[in-house]
Structures are given as C-alpha cells and as structure tokens.
Specification:
single chain, 140 residues, mainly alpha, three-stranded antiparallel sheet, 6 helices, 3 strands, elongated
C-alpha cells in the first residue's frame, strides 16, 4: 500500500483498506522528510533543512523584530517577517532561498526558531536548565 513512486495510482481496494494507523504512519514518515535541525553558536541559530541548505538567524533581536515576529496575524505574515529577519541578518540570498523550500519546512523552521528564541530569553534571565535557580539581577 505504501509507495513513493509518482507512478502509483491507488485502487478502490487501497482506499477500502486504508486505516487510521496507515494515516499515522504516513504522516510520521512525512514529518521526518520535513524535519529541521539546528545548532546554536554564540547568539546565532543555525538551521539545517532537509535539502541540505542552512539558514542563519539571530537569537538576540531587537524589540521591534521580536514584536513583529510575535504579533503576526497569519502564517503568511509570519513567513514574511522571517524572510525580513533573514535578509537583514544573513543577506537577501538566504531570504530568497526560503521561497524554494516546501511550506512544511518553512513552518517547521518558524516553529523551531521561535522555540529557540524563547529558550534564549529564558537563558538570559537565568532560567535555562544550566543556570542557577535565580538570577541576582531579576530575583527570579
């Protein structure tokens, strides 16, 4: 039943035999194909996307950039803000390269980068796993 061939044409039996478990397995496989990996060097987030391209984004950003990225009203706006930050931080070539990525990769990159920014904020406040329980500057 599983095929990666573009020549595959499902039969009525394929549809009749398809189960929720098949759905879960198919989507798990698809998710692996669009997985974004990252490393952190200094205050820079480096993402590796499935096609082998890397993207460089700042973990330290201005309040304006953070607000624009956080206050987007839809996915299209989020992608445009990500491209703007990429362009400012790593150049227009990287921002334009994002246009060629599958939409799932772009959304996974947005999500992973957003998580990294939040974790970096926590680290700067002394709240990361490797930090003391409270920061002398925040009293937290």
């Amino acid at each position: 039943m599983t095929s990666t061939s573009t020549d595959f044409k499902p039969t009525v039996e394929d549809f009749d035999q398809w189960t929720e478990k098949n759905d879960e397995e198919a989507f798990a496989s698809i998710a692996q194909n669009y997985k974004v990996r990252h490393i952190i060097k200094g205050d820079v987030y480096w993402a590796l996307v499935p096609g082998g391209r890397t993207y460089k984004l700042p973990l330290s950003m201005s309040i304006d950039d953070f607000t624009r990225l956080s206050n987007t009203s839809d996915d299209t706006e989020s992608v445009e803000q990500l491209k703007r930050i990429l362009s400012a931080f790593a150049g227009d070539k990287q921002a334009k390269a994002l246009n060629g990525e599958p939409v799932q990769v772009v959304f996974n990159l947005l999500s992973d980068y957003g998580d990294a920014v939040v974790r970096a904020q926590g680290a700067s406040l002394g709240k990361s796993n490797g930090s003391p329980a409270s920061s002398p500057n925040t009293g937290v």
